[in-house]
# Entry
Amino acid sequence: MATPNGATSSGASTARPSVIQLAIKEKPALYAAFIPFLTEGGIFIPTTRDYRLGDDVYLLLTIMDNPQRFPVAGKVAWITPANAAGNKTQGIGVRFPADEKARQLRLVIEEILGPTAEIASRATHTL
# Structure
């Protein structure tokens, strides 16, 4: 299950990115959160905080048993509002940046998910 522990910076005049810690502990949760259709990849973050498309987000992502925390300086590319159709979870999709660290993260996620036939019938948080 994906569990965010978000901490945000305050200050209306300085647009500093939100800092969010997200731990994805199970393969089905990773499948539901991963956004492969974005060019660089992305991840869905359940949150009730208001965001706008293009907002900067700094994510510290932990995936299953991997001891490494993956830092991602991404941008909001998807918003699922409260009370969305289809009972979708409220939150944001964060697009990974076009850099080597994000490319490595996408490879780690794709390696974990591998052939997803056994969970492909499950709904995701995006499409």
Summary: The radius of gyration is 14 Å. The mean pLDDT is 81. The first helix runs from residue 27 to 33.
